[in-house]
Amino acid sequence: MKILLIGLGSIGKRHLGNLLAIGYTDLTVVSRSYELPVEFTKCKKYTTTGEALLNHQFDTAFICNPTSLHIPDLLLLLKNQVKNIYIEKPLSNSTEHLNDVLQLANAYSSNIVVGYDLHFDPGTQKIKELLQQNIIGKIISANAFVGQQGNECKKRNGRWCNARFDS
């Protein structure tokens, strides 16, 4: 599988490290950095998404760059018919061009996922359960402040994990 990873900030590095740890080898990175960190030097590198797409066809892409660049890169991926696209949240900082995204996504039957790890959080799951059972009633509005304690996220064997759930 040919994978494109766009953006090599902390989240992009985490995804790339995990992909390498589980055995993917045909990886291409888009990064504005002149050089890749030493642990990623086996990956192909381009400075723009357009340049990477001109030189390769990809099965899967991860969009991990700044939010303001998500939609332009997503449109490029859809126009190049990349089938599986994972986008770090939020999808965009604007509603501009979202209709273009929907049209292209439907035209090419792409699988697009926006990452939101709290879907699987035990607290979020409990709230969903209570809502489905009508125990806490109808929610009109909600605000949540979330985060992780620094000691819960640790690097083991070269990959990041959650110390509460991974061993």
Number of helices: 5
Strand order of the largest sheet: 3-2-1-4-5-6
Count of distinct structural domains: 2
In CATH, the architecture of the largest domain is: 3-Layer(aba) Sandwich
Instruction: State which percent range the strand residues make up.
Output: 15-25%
Radius of gyration: 18 Å
Number of strands: 8
Which CATH class of the largest domain applies here? Answer: Alpha Beta
User: Secondary-structure element sequence?
Assistant: EHEEHEHEHEHEE
Description:
The protein contains five helices and eight strands; from the N terminus they run E-H-E-E-H-E-H-E-H-E-H-E-E. By secondary structure, it is an alpha/beta fold. The chain folds into two domains: 3-115, Rossmann fold; 118-167, no CATH class. The strands form two sheets. It has a six-stranded parallel sheet with strand order 3-2-1-4-5-6, sandwiched between helices. A two-stranded antiparallel ribbon has the order 7-8. Strand 1, helix 1 and strand 2 (27-30) form a beta-alpha-beta unit. The longest helix has 12 residues, at 10-21. Mean pLDDT is 86; it is low at 162-167.
